[in-house]
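FYI - complex with NDP, inputs then prediction.
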Amino acid sequence: MSFAQEILAKVKQKDAGQPEFIQAVTEVVESLELVLQKRPEYIKHKIIERIIEPERVILFRVPWMDDQGNVQVNRGFRIEMNSAIGPYKGGLRFHPSVNLGILKFLAFEQVFKNSLTTLPMGGGKGGSDFDPKGKSDNEVMRFCQSFMSELFRHIGANTDVPAGDIGVGGREIGFLFGQYKKLRNEFVGVLTGKGLNWGGSLIRPEATGYGAVYFAAEMLATRNETLEGKTCLVSGSGNVAQYAIEKILDLGGKPVTCSDSAGYIYDEAGIDREKLAYLMDLKNVKRGRIKEYADKFKSAVYTAVDPKLDYNPLWNHKANCAFPSATQNEINGKDAANLLKNKVYVVSEGANMPTSIEGVNQFIDAKILYGPGKAANAGGVATSGLEMSQNSLRYGWSREEVDAKLLGIMKSIHKAAFETAKAFGTPGNLVNGANIAGFLKVADSMMDQGLV
Ligand code: NDP
């Protein structure tokens, strides 16, 4: 049994009920086999065993009252995964599917991603099984206040700095920040994704989507190509998807799909700027469903999710590029095969771990330009890091300055993943490149800091 197999066997036994966490660890540990052959000191210091164990897991009750006066109880979490290179940093997810295993996978990925950004941030993730869908603003506020009434004692600008994720956008961050400020009586950069009037950074809302498209452009540049004229499939219609669509348009591409959990639209004519403005209003203000896009624009066809299908038809259209930007495991083996069959040769992951291991292996074998989430979507947390810097400086950079820094960071992440993949004998394999480049900095820092 190889070292990686031994580790995986232990994880499968210990964390049996956490399939997403096992999946994330499997992918990373397989890449790290290449490192361990060259750096056996990591084995001696049990760096892998330590890096897959969270430094701390916080689990708490979140009671709140709905608009009808009924008591509701949700579960809150914060996984403080690794602080070797900086304070814990990573988003909060509010979605009914949230559980310990999902948050551990996200926190684990975050450790490597944050390391890749070149900024001093450790890894963490948190959230709740609370579903903001269909809740009034007042209900969301009461929930956020109750959630923060426990979380505040565990976080801080130099300890742990949460941000948004699925179900947590500007509205939720506002309520969370307000409650933190009240309880601590201090105005500090303890959360990122804040409003511009109260410590937020320009470009933070755009950053994950923009970054995933910048990453695709970098991958294409290695083949002397650009996004100009390329047809792009996008999934999701939230924060990441919206700004991925905007940046695809900026760079001359043609986005033709987007989705929510009920279905997807295919707009053969392309989602142009006017349609994107409608989509943003539909999702961010009216909080409506994607089906309404097809009611409004006759060029679009809506397809509802069919639970009987073992593939997602969104990934079965002729295109050049794909930007999965909804959720984990939204591209399974069959979807990956459909993408390849339809001549997609650029996949840049806006979402975290959107492709199953079977799908990833197909992309690697086909030698397409495949940017794994922990590299391709790192622009969001990188810009959160820039928000932290601006908060520390008590200063705000211009839109152009932050965007230029974001672009620079995405280029350097691509370069690090690309060159590391080559240095470890798997040129073009950005999964290995990103996993190894992210790992080395954290592992060496852990060794420097002793057995803690
Ligand atoms: P949002 O909540 O803004 O949007 C999520 C979108 O994905 C919605 O359209 C939602 O549809 C859809 N979706 C969510 N869960 C499911 C599901 N189980 N099945 C089908 N569709 C689903 O979240 P974000 O845009 O912020 O996040 C999207 C992805 O990007 C996530 O994987 C997240 O972890 C990742 N990410 C986000 C970052 C950020 O800065 N926000 C940073 C890095 C990664 P519906 O409304 O119907 O639920």
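Residues 207-371 form a domain with the Rossmann fold fold (CATH 3.40.50.720). The first strand starts at residue 56 and ends at 65.
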